[in-house]
Every structure is written in structure tokens, then in C-alpha cells.
Amino acid sequence: MKFSRLIIQVLLVIAVIMSIVLSFFIWTNTARYQRGRNIDVTSSTQANKNEIPINQVISPTSVIWHGDSGQNLIYNSNDNIALSIQKVMKDWKIDSPRLVSKKDGAYYQKIIQSKDVLQLVYPSSVSTSILGYLLNNNSLRNDKSYSFNRILINLKDKNDKNIYLANDSNYAVYKAPVRNATSAPITKLIKKANIKLKIRLNIMKHGVFTFFTNPVSLKTYSYVISSKEDGEYTTALFDSNTNGLVTSEDNGVYTYNYGESKRLVSDHNSGELSFEDYTDTSVPKTKLAFLQRGYQKVVNLQNSISNLRLYSANWGDKDLVFREYVEGFPIFKKSHFGSIRINFSRKGSTENFLNKVLEVPVPSDQAATKLKSTNDIFKGLEKVGYSPNDVQNIEVAYQWESETDNEKVVDLKPTYYIKIDGHWKPYSDWTNDTAEDK
């Protein structure tokens, strides 16, 4: 009996030691945090990246609800409201839209500030044919294509059986009849929002700006980033045929040429890469084909695309820009072009991208950042000589900051980014002042 009791005691000691060791590894492993949280950035492997559908990459990034308390930008950290509403809309029968108004700023401001209306806002304009493709709706896909960047849905007026498509660039408003629709699922999603920021939509010289009427408090995030060796890119981009590659190097910039048909330039100092395919001379003929081909190139480039969103689509220049998003806000300063930039031309296609991809959230000991109201930001700009008419765009965004003591970790800090004279810069660069509310 004494011997068996001794064995039990020894086994208990061993179990306690193993528990302590396992706990140590769990709590010191940077991959442990927030695996189950949805903050628009999730881990995605090579095996499942193709499961991220195009209607997630090309989707609204902002949801605005005008209820009894006024207009609010809303978000749910555990359930992306925009994607959930998009899924609800797939069951709707949306008929061909017709023009209601155009180039009428007063009417447009009234529409986008309407009470009991929910808005899904895209960072760049899309077309009705694209929306039809994303929602699997043939009425929209095959109809005359109109451009818009807002979808407006009245959730209280039972007599208004329409959705409205609005275009900030020319104040056009289109009305599309809807059948087989109910507001109940959307109302339920709105009630689950755990982030509500008071806003006002203002029409200014360069477009419709989202003004945060009160100081904005946002979390700071840290992420482990991943990267790939140049060989992984050459294998993927040169169709696995790397026998004929000619490689050269100059001050950390590596160039890989495959005859005169393809070239990859990899700057190991900045982590930026540029791939030119001179055989890809077919320019997309429709906006839908334009985005489809851009999406496919994104899938081919990155292991993790679940956090990417289409940020800008310039149909005239055949230029696409994708950015990573956190809590519905874009990430800046990762590079001068965003996360991925793709251009199509008769001379070939060009892909610019960064060999740094957000992978896993890690704990951050930094307190939430409280930003000034948008009005105060404009006052600060005016103090240093910039008028409201100089501001081409303004965004609350996350700024990419690499940690000095750990090159595998990046900090994402909220701030205001402002576009003046065609250049995006943080508020502090334009004013030498902080965007934080004291």
C-alpha cells in the first residue's frame, strides 16, 4: 500500500510539472491569441486560401446605421456584419435598377442621411453587373451596368420595397425593386454590433466624407507576420519552370528574368516585389472581368487573403489596389501602394506586392488610442495652411509599424490618414501634431 501510494504521489508530481511546462509554452507562443476572433484578419493557409470567395475580397468595408440615436458606423468583432448582410441579400430577388436622380447634391445628401436606413459602403465604386455576379443575381448581372459605392436599405418603411444604389462621384441614385426580402435578419445583425461610432456624412469638394462627430477610441493590435523566399514566388509566377531563370543582384535587390517574357524584382531591403508578365497582354474588356482577373492574381500571390479587401478600382487606368483591414479600417504605411497593386495593359500586366503578410494576432500591452473628432482634425489642418477644399480624402486607419526588437511582429496603431495633392500621409506628417485626443 505504501509503495502504491508513493507511485501515485510521483505521478501527481510529474503531472503538475507537465502542466506547468505546457502552460509556459502556450502562454509564450505568439500564435495563442484570438484564434477565434473575427477582426477582419485571420490565419489562412495555402490549402484553404482558395476557399476565400471573391465576394469576401470585393465587399463593403463599412456599415452605417441611422437609428434613433443618429448615424453610427457599426461593426461586430465576432461576426462581420457586411459579409453577413451580403449573404442575406443572396436570397433576395433584386430586379433591374432605374435612375432616380443624378448630379443633385442636395437630394443626395438627404438620401445618404435618411433615418431608418442601413448603408453598405464600398471603398471603391463597383457596378451593378459585379453586384449581380457576387450575389448570383442574373437580373443585375445581365442588365445595363451602373456604377455605385453605396447600397441603401430602408428597414422600417414596409411600403418601400426597394434598395437604392448611390454613387458618391456623380451623386447618382438608382432604385431597384426587391422581392422575397425581409428586414428581420438585418435588424438582428445591427443589434449585435459591439462597436458603434457616431458619424455624420458630409458632402465636400472632393466627395462624401465620413465625419466622426466625437473622439474615437480604437484598440492597438500586434501581429506576427509571415514571408516567403524568392524561390517560392519564382516557382508560382514562372509556372514552375525556373530552369531558364537568369538571376542578378545589386545592393540587396534581386532580379529574376525568364527570357524577355517575365521578370521578378525582389527588394530585400524593403520587402517589396514587382512582377511583370509581358505575355499577359489581354486587357479585361468588362469591369467584371477586370475584378475577376485581379482577384485570381491575388489568390496566386498570397497564402493568406482573408484579410484583403479591394480598396481602389481605376477602370480607366486598369489599376487595382488591395489593402488589409482590421475592424473595418484599412491599413496604411505597409508600402506606398497598399498590400497588392495590379495593373493591366497591352504591354503586359504588373503586380506590386509586399513580402509581409499579417498572420496571427499577439498580445499588445498598449492601451486603446483615442483619436480626435474629424472636425478637430480639419481645424488642425487649417492651422498649418490646408483648407477643407485641399483634402481629397480622409480615413480613420491603422498605421503599420514594425517593431525594432522583433522583425516578425508588426504593430497596428489607429490614426487619421489624409490625402492632399494626391499623397496619403498620416495627420502627424501634415501638421507635426498628433491625431490623438488629449
From TrEMBL:
<feature type="domain" description="Regulatory protein YycH">
    <location>
        <begin position="10"/>
        <end position="429"/>
    </location>
</feature>
<dbReference type="Pfam" id="PF07435">
    <property type="entry name" value="YycH"/>
</dbReference>
<keyword id="KW-0472">Membrane</keyword>
<feature type="transmembrane region" description="Helical">
    <location>
        <begin position="6"/>
        <end position="27"/>
    </location>
</feature>
<keyword id="KW-1133">Transmembrane helix</keyword>
<dbReference type="InterPro" id="IPR009996">
    <property type="entry name" value="YycH"/>
</dbReference>
<keyword id="KW-0812">Transmembrane</keyword>
<protein>
    <recommendedName>
        <fullName>Regulatory protein YycH domain-containing protein</fullName>
    </recommendedName>
</protein>
